[in-house]
Amino acid sequence: MVSALSLTSQLAPAPTDWQAEVWRLLGEVNDPEIPILSIIDLGIVRYVRGASREALHVGLTPTYSGCPATEVIRRLVEEKLARAGFGRIVIETLLAPPWTSDWITPAARLKLAAYGIAPPVEAVSNPRRLFAAAPVGCPRCKSTKTRLISEFGSTPCKAHYMCAECLEPFDYFKCI
Ligand SMILES: [Zn+2]
What we know:
The chain has 176 residues and is an alpha/beta fold. The protein has two domains: 82 residues, Fe-S cluster assembly (FSCA) (GMP Synthetase, Chain A, domain 3), CATH 3.30.300; 68 residues, no CATH class. It has four helices and seven strands, in the order H-H-E-E-H-E-H-E-E-E-E. The N terminus is likely disordered. The structure holds zinc ion.
């Protein structure tokens, strides 16, 4: 016997549901440089608009201009949506307002720390940080006795740190 629930899930999404489907699919597109984070986690998807699943617009803001991942992300989004049966996908790049690390979701910050990358410590929108920068915590032992080794880590948006307590070297996702 087929339950009502499984019948419903087999039906094509109602027209009002296709945008939710796009958001769900975009949540499965991972950032090429930090594959544990999706582009939704990073906060770079600004909108999903359009008249139908045959004519949709996706607004993306690159994490920072010149980031080599930007073109790759565009292609991944197009491929993901095309495979799911969406047509005429227009990807719009939005440069203003510029992306900041403040847009990284709270859930994504926890994922970063669990992965061993210290998440941005402060809100870029907080002007106070220019005068008294908060210490970067070690993602392994939580100690704030850490020191900067290099302004550039494995990718330009990260810096390389070392923990003085547990001696763990780690990447820090910079406040940008
Ligand atoms: Zn440590």
